[in-house]
Amino acid sequence: MFMATVDSSIVIISMPAIFRGIHLDPFAAGNISYLLWMIMGYLLVTAVLVVTLGRLGDIVGRVKIYNLGFVVFTLASVALSFDPAHGGSGAMWLIAWRVVQALGGAMLMANSAAILTDAFPARQRGMALGINQILALSGTFIGLVLGGVLSAWDWRAVFWVNVPVGIFGTIWAYRSLREISARQPARIDWWGNLTFALGCGLILVSITYGIQPYGHDTMGWTSPKVLTGLIGGLALLIVFAVVETRVPQPMFNLGLFRNRHFAAGNAAALLASIARGGLQFMLIIWLQGIWLPLHGYDFADAPLWAGIFLLPLTAGFLLAGPASGILSDRFGVRYFTTGGLLLFGASFVGLLLLPINFPYWAFALLILLNGLGSGMFSAPNTSAIMSSVPATHRGAASGMRSTFQNSGTSLSIGVFFSLLIIGLANRLPSALDSGLRAQGVPAGVAHQAASLPPVSTVFSAFLGINPIETLLKPSGTLAKLPAHNREVLTGKEFFPNLISSSFHHGLIIVFATAAGMSLLAATASALRGTPKPTLLEPTAGERKAAGAGGGEQQAGPTATRPAAKS
């Protein structure tokens, strides 16, 4: 799980090195699309396929799908590192193999929680799933640091790092894991799979295009293609819901949502994922585009240092996750999940109140609290969701949980970027126009640079490139200016000071929205109630362990397990 989620973020911080390596200008016409698809393609595939692969695990065996995921993931990592092309062709090679890599990652994500739930008794399940979930979440942030370090050496190392882990994991899983759950032979629900994959896929693809410029608009939300995709995707998901109530062996048993603990847990997970998913992008842009240059860091070095300065966020996950998982086994989940979400939301309020050029200790404390709150919530919530469903539906339930989490992340990126761009579009053009003219840039060139979509400026900072050089390079204006003006324009303070007010306005909107989502998630979590202990039929693993007598215990001692009453 750690390996699968590291790869959802390791490419983000490595983008400058990757684009230089394949000789692709990210700001040439149409190339922003390549950048977005390298980031969003992985998230989209994992969000769409985890339910199908989880249900397939219920039918043919979870360990088989899990082991196959290791193989697919490793082979795709090898192919990514051998990109033979340059320019747009090189980018398409990377995007295509990232999709294949995401298929392998989805196989791992869809079945890991179900395998652990089968293997551990209720009194240890929170601990086991807590470790699994927190390593998954921390992987998204450790990937930022790892990508910065590896891409500084060679961009291909970003993909090679997965290969030895993948080979070891494949061999270890094949030799060690055994099927201990009872397989449920069933016909594949083709209509359910098709309508869910197309519906979810259309919505997430539309979000990806929605944050790109369209015509003279700063974003593409008014594009007929985007609107058609959103409406069509929603319609297909409605058809999916109808299909699943009619077929005898559905891909996903929607009746599970009548279970309050399952429904509330997934609702809280979706809302928390929307609040958290775009956070790392906002913090990276804040650090790379403004704070680090103002504190003397070169734009080219900013990606690596942004990952390092975000380590308190990962530390919070690692501290709170396993501890809350273990304690929730003993004291119940609701206080940990609801309390964690309230702490999570409070950290967004604190970030909202920070000045744009903040003291680092305050920033580090707030993102540490954010990580602690997220860790307190994630592990017990996962345990509660997986313990509330029958053993025969754990693969599909694990997939649905991952779908909510990954879809929430993709939706969050679209929402947060849109809110940020709206904030920038209202203020940045006039500030940029007047600031450039004050340094001797001709009025026509300044106006043209200020008229470019704000998303280009944001991605310049995101890629560790001086945005002013990017904006003025095509006109050749920089070479014609006096040395002093050229030095000011390309220095470390001009762009951060220029964008600070506009960016802060956008950040306030983003963090206020995230705080509101966190409060809604806490409300959903509180509504789950406290499950009453009931006798539940042992899983196949528990029956096997019990039957072994004094022999080897594969699934832990058989025990009476608390379960939610449907």
* Helical proportion, percent range: over 70%
- The ordered H/E elements are HHHHHHHHHHHHHHHHHHHHHHH
Which parts are unreliable, with pLDDT below 50 for 5 consecutive residues or more? 532-566
Sheet with most strands: none
Count of helical stretches:
23
Radius of gyration: 24 Å
Q: What is the CA–CA distance across the termini?
A: 30 Å
What is the percentage of strand-forming residues? under 5%
Indicate the mean pLDDT. 78
Shape: globular
Number of strands: 0
Q: Structural class, from helix and strand content?
A: mainly alpha
Name its key features:
566 residues, disordered C terminus, 76% helix, mainly alpha
Structure report:
The chain is mostly helical. Helices cover 76% and strands 0% of the residues. Helix 2 packs parallel to helix 4, helix 8 (190-210) packs antiparallel against helix 9 and helix 13 runs parallel beside helix 15.
Summarize the structure.
The chain has helices at 2-21, 31-60, 62-81, 87-119, 122-153, 157-160, 162-176, 190-210, 224-246, 260-277, 279-294, 302-309, 311-331, 334-353, 360-387, 394-438, 443-451, 454-462, 467-472, 477-480, 483-489, 494-526, 540-547. By secondary structure, the chain is mostly helical. Helix 16 (394-438) packs antiparallel against helix 17.
Question: Layout of SSEs?
Answer:
Elements: H1 2-21, H2 31-60, H3 62-81, H4 87-119, H5 122-153, H6 157-160, H7 162-176, H8 190-210, H9 224-246, H10 260-277, H11 279-294, H12 302-309, H13 311-331, H14 334-353, H15 360-387, H16 394-438, H17 443-451, H18 454-462, H19 467-472, H20 477-480, H21 483-489, H22 494-526, H23 540-547
Helix pairs in contact: 1-2, 1-4, 1-5, 2-3, 2-4, 2-8, 2-16, 3-4, 3-7, 4-5, 4-16, 5-12, 5-13, 5-15, 8-9, 8-16, 10-15, 10-16, 10-22, 11-12, 11-18, 11-22, 13-15, 14-15, 14-22, 16-17, 16-22
